[in-house]
Amino acid sequence: MTEPARNRTALTVAVWAWVVLPFGYGVYELVRKATQLFSG
């Protein structure tokens, strides 16, 4: 793999992590709070 392709792959992984990690945390919090709401 050439150097520019490796840098692009690293950038792609970083950008997806920037999107997926907060989204995953939000889904986790949603499930946690919904469970509290419906369990009493």
Key attributes of the depicted protein:
40 residues; mainly alpha
Question: What is the structural class?
Answer: mainly alpha
User: How many β-strand stretches?
Assistant: 0
Mean model confidence by pLDDT: 92
Strand residues, percent: under 5%
Kindly provide the radius of gyration, computed on alpha-carbon positions and rounded to a whole number of angstroms: 17 Å
Principal-axis shape equals rod-shaped
Q: Give the assembly state of these chains.
A: single chain
Please give the alpha-carbon distance between the first and last residues: 55 Å
Task: Please give the count of helices.
Answer: 1
Order of helices and strands: H
Q: How would you sum up the major sheet?
A: none
Low-confidence stretches: none
Q: What percentage of residues falls in helices of 4 or more residues?
A: over 70%
